[in-house]
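Q: Here's a chain of 106 amino acids. Please give me its 3D structure as tokens.
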Amino acid sequence: MSPLKVISQQPPGGRCTLYARYADAIAGELGWSHTIVHDECRDAHGEGFPSLWVRDIAIQPADGAILTPEDICDWLQQNGVDASRADALQQRLQAVLDDFLENWKP
């Protein structure tokens, strides 16, 4: 099983697309594999879409709505990822979020 998983609707919507892009960035930075699982169950940050999982845990957004680079990197640091790697990842994830916010068209 991949350490990183995105649960997404098909076709993906906004947060599903963003979380898949986050997963690509995390996998690239940390060398982890990742999968995208398509599901019909809407359960944000739970068992359905949209959610971003590391191993068996869905990362929860601080604002309850959308994961930010800070949410992801804080969670990763609390779960053993070195702070310097998390800092580099946060910059990469912020670029993903900035690009998404600037260019996303539903």
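Q: Can you summarize the key feature?
A: The longest strand covers residues 4-8.
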